[in-house]
Structures are given as structure tokens and as C-alpha cells.
Amino acid sequence: MFQARFDSDLGRLSLVASGFWSVEEADEATATVRSAASEAAAYAKPITILSDLRGAQIQSAKVAEINMNSMAVLATLSIRKYAVVTSSQLIRLQFKRQAGSDFPLAFFEDLDEAMAWLVTP
């Protein structure tokens, strides 16, 4: 499952991913990211991103490769902060590999802590 939503009041792109994806689901997620990123790109200031991966599972190599396309789309945005919520060290490692060094990332185990970090200057 994947959801993406841009909140123009907060200037925040919220992403929620869970489960183990098929290639088709990964392609659908990339299309969803493209749509939400298009909306975020119209925002006048740098945005924040919150990725809730608490329900996510380690993905196959092919799905991880497809997910890198989503990360490339996000890399085109002006991002002030990017918070990732997960308690899994393996998910963190996979996410870091997919993201590369293009993002101002921080990892959290608690959603409230991540949200609080996003609103700090």
C-alpha cells in the first residue's frame, strides 16, 4: 500500500508505505509520487517530506530499483527537511541506498518526534 498527499497549508509532502510490493505496485507508487511532486513543485517555498515506513517491508531488488525512480522525482523538489519514520534498521539501510545523498534526511522511530523535527527551523 502506498499513499502520497501534499498539504499546501503545511508545505508538506506526506508519504505512507506498507507491505511488500509487486513490480506493478511499485510502478503505481512512482506514478503517485510524480503526481504529488507536481503539486509540491508549485509551492513557493522549500517543502518538508514525511515518509511513514512503519508498516513497510524490505523490498525485492527490482522494486528497490523502481523506488529509486521515485527518489529521483523527489530530488527535483526544493526540500528543507525529509523525515523518515521506521524502527527497522534494514528499512533504513535500504532507504539510504535508494535516496543517495541528495536529501536532508533524518530517521525517527516515533511519528510525533519526526513531525516536531519538521517544524523546527
Explain this structure.
The protein is an alpha/beta fold and 121 residues long. The chain has a single domain (2-119), classed as Transcription Regulator spoIIAA (2-Layer Sandwich). It is 44% helix and 29% strand. It is built from 4 helices and 5 strands; from the N terminus they run E-E-H-E-H-E-H-E-H. The protein has helices spanning 23-41, 61-74, 89-99, 111-119; strands at residues 2-7, 12-19, 47-56, 79-85, 105-108. The chain has a 5-stranded mixed sheet, with helices on both faces. Strand 1 (2-7) and strand 2 form a beta hairpin. The longest helix has 19 residues, at 23-41. The termini are far apart. The mean pLDDT is 96. InterPro entries: SpoIIAA-like, SpoIIAA-like_sf, STAS_dom_sf. This is STAS/SEC14 domain-containing protein. Pfam families: SpoIIAA-like. It comes from Rhizorhabdus dicambivorans.
